[in-house]
Specification:
The complex is a heterodimer of chains A (112) and B (113). Chain A is an all-beta fold. Helices cover 0% and strands 56% of the residues of chain A. Chain A is built from no helices and 11 strands. In chain A, strands 2, 4, 5, 9, 10 and 11 form a 6-stranded mixed sheet that branches. Chain A has a 5-stranded antiparallel sheet with strand order 1-3-8-7-6, with no helix packed on it. Chain B has 113 residues and is mostly beta strands. The chains are: A mainly beta (112), B mainly beta (113). At the A-B interface, strand 4, strand 5 and strand 10 of A face strand 4 and strand 5 of B.
Chain lengths: 112, 113
């Protein structure tokens, strides 16, 4: 089955700096890679996703890159703000109704 | 916060008792999922269902059971066979039709003593 590894487990950055979270996956059949943000005491919410036919996707201060050959994908947050502080999860899936395998999460702390 | 709901928010049980966690959605989603969240372990899939009256085991199904008699509902039973049931349980749903986002419920924190 799919195995998703996520690093680092914790990350502290100064406000305004960039943050990068990296994930690797094992199953070459995976073609959908979402990122979820979970604020303290709240439910996870999708912030960005990428499909295997695309190498990079941006949404304002957030971007995701995918390297299918190396089986890794990354989340980039620029100009970090205190409200970016949360736990971020990467995931991999074959899409559709298929199961989604999540990484172990990265706790991001943005220091004002 | 409508769309997908879980109840109760907190649940306390004695060891040896079965307990059922509720998950309901009014999003008309075909697929529903149950995850267990433990500190440092991310979200681990317990069971998922792609259609009514059908479901598949996830990565940690032992000690759990589910049913999917209605499209809107996907209850999870934590049985006495589950060795470490204390955890935060999240339910999710998705359309699965070209748009793969999973919508999560608010979660149920189960404590077994």
């Amino acid at each position: 089955g799919e195995n998703v590894e996520q690093h680092p487990s914790t990350l502290s950055v100064q406000e305004g700096d960039s943050a990068v979270i990296k994930c690797t996956y094992s199953d070459s059949a995976s073609n959908y890679f979402p990122w979820y943000k979970q604020e303290l005491g709240k439910r996870p919410q999708l912030i960005i996703d990428i499909r295997s036919n695309v190498g990079e996707k941006k949404d304002q201060r957030i971007a995701v890159t995918l390297n299918k050959t190396a089986k890794h994908f990354s989340l980039h947050i620029t100009e970090t703000q205190p409200e970016d502080s949360a736990v971020y999860f990467c995931a991999a899936s074959e899409g559709g109704y298929q199961k989604v395998t999540f990484g172990t999460g990265t706790k991001l702390q943005v220091i004002p | 916060d409508g769309g997908i709901t879980q109840s109760p928010k907190y649940l306390f049980r004695k060891e040896g008792q079965n307990v059922t966690l509720s998950c309901e959605q009014n999003l008309n989603h075909d697929a529903m999922y149950w995850y267990r969240q433990d500190p440092g372990q991310g979200l681990r899939l317990i069971y998922y269902s792609q259609i009514v009256n059908d479901f598949q085991k996830g990565d940690i199904a032992e000690g759990y059971s589910v049913s999917r008699e209605k499209k809107e509902s996907f209850p999870l039973t934590v049985t006495s066979a589950q060795k470490n049931p204390t955890a935060f349980y999240l339910c999710a749903s998705s359309t699965g039709q070209g748009h793969y986002e999973q919508y999560f419920g608010p979660g149920t924190r189960l404590t077994v003593t």
